[in-house]
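This follows on from our talk about sequence and fold. I would like you to pick a protein and set down its sequence and fold. Go ahead and set the record down below:
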Amino acid sequence: MIPRILIPILFATSVAFAQSSEELPPIFNGKDLAGWKTPTPASYWKVVDGVLIGESDDEKKSSMLYTEKTYGDVVVELEARWSGDIDSGVMIRKPELQLQFGTSRSLKRDMTCCFYVGKYPEEGQAKGKDEVLKIGDWNKIRLEAKGDNYTVWLNGKKVTEYTNPGFKNAGPIGLQIHAGVKMKVEFRNIGARALE
C-alpha cells in the first residue's frame, strides 16, 4: 500500500511525465517538405531516411524552415539530434519566440530548452536539463504554448516554465540554422496540435 502522504507527490510526477507521451498529428511526413515553405538557401534542408536534416555549408548563412500553417496556442513535439557546436531551435508565435537548441552565440554555452527573446531571461532558462540531455543522440522535446505560459519537457522531464505576455499572435512553427556557424541538426517525429 502507498502511504497517503506520497500519493500527491506520485500523482504530480506522473502528470509531468504523462504530458510528454501524447501522440500528436505529424507535421513532417518523413518523405519530403510538404507542408513547409521552401527556405533560402533551400540546399540547407533535406530529407534522408525519414529524417529532416538542416546543414549549412562553408558560407555559414542562416536559414529558417517554416510550416505553411500558423498556430497560436499549440503543443509541439519532436526529436532532435546534434553534436558539436550548433545553434538551432524551434520558433513559435508572432513576434517570434525561440526555444534554443545547442550553443548560444552570445553566451558561448549550451542553452538547450531555454527561451531566447533577444536575451535569455533567467525565468525562461531550463532547470536540470543536463541530467537528461543526450548530446549526439536523439532528444525528445515537447513545447506547450497556452496563453502567456510556455512549458517544456526534455526526454520526459519538465525543465522549463516561462510566462511572457509579449507573444500573443499566431505564427508558423520554425526550425533554425543560425548564421556564422557551420552546423548540422537532425529532426524526426515532428508533431503539433492546436490547443482549444
In short: The longest helix spans residues 7-18. DSSP finds one helix and 13 strands in the chain. The domain at 4-194 is CATH 2.60.120.560 (Jelly Rolls). The two ends are 38 Å apart (CA to CA).
